[in-house]
Design goal:
26% of the residues lie in helices and 25% in strands. It is of the alpha+beta class.
Length: 227
Amino acid sequence: MKIIPLHAWDVSPKEAVGIQNRLARRIVLESRSAPPQIVAGADIAFDKASDAAFAVVVLLRFPSLLPFEKFVFKGTVKFPYVPGLLSFREAPLLLKTFEQVEPAPDLIFFDGQGLAHPRRLGLASHLGLFLDCPTVGCAKSRLTGHYEKPGQEKGSVSPLLNDAGEPLGAVVRTRDNCKPVFVSPGHKIDIDSAVRWTLQCTTRYRIPEPTRLAHNLVSEYKRTGKI
């Protein structure tokens, strides 16, 4: 995939906040009604004993959700762990992985936030701009915003709102009587479309298949050095 060079990564946390505020104004929210043909999942794992990190991107056919290609990259992490700035820690290695990806996916899922971020630029939004591709953030926990619990049935949805009542994403029940996930658009997709494709990419597990497979693969890659 082609990477759009938007900024340098060797920045301070203060500079990173400024970059987020600037890039957030470039996010596009648009309806995506046409089904994707190829969806991707991306994930990263860290070695707690060193500064090494492992990244994986997996491609799946839609609607079968059968994986057909995977890409890996191992590197070092330079940016410190700062809440709200995790994309500056994770994105450089993920972009190195996406540089290898061919064919380009129509939709990418990230285990993280998109618009549902204090500065409206979570990992899915940040990388969506670099990749110029529709992206969705599907997180297992809330970073910001408030909501009412959705119904217990799969497909139940509740809006995730900021303090001004503006929508940031949705709280989505992907399995009956299971903890919901927090879905927010990254880039080039709107909230309704992000929710729709998240549900259609979820099988019998709580997590959408693209990020579930990416998580399993990156765990294996970290453990064995190969997948």
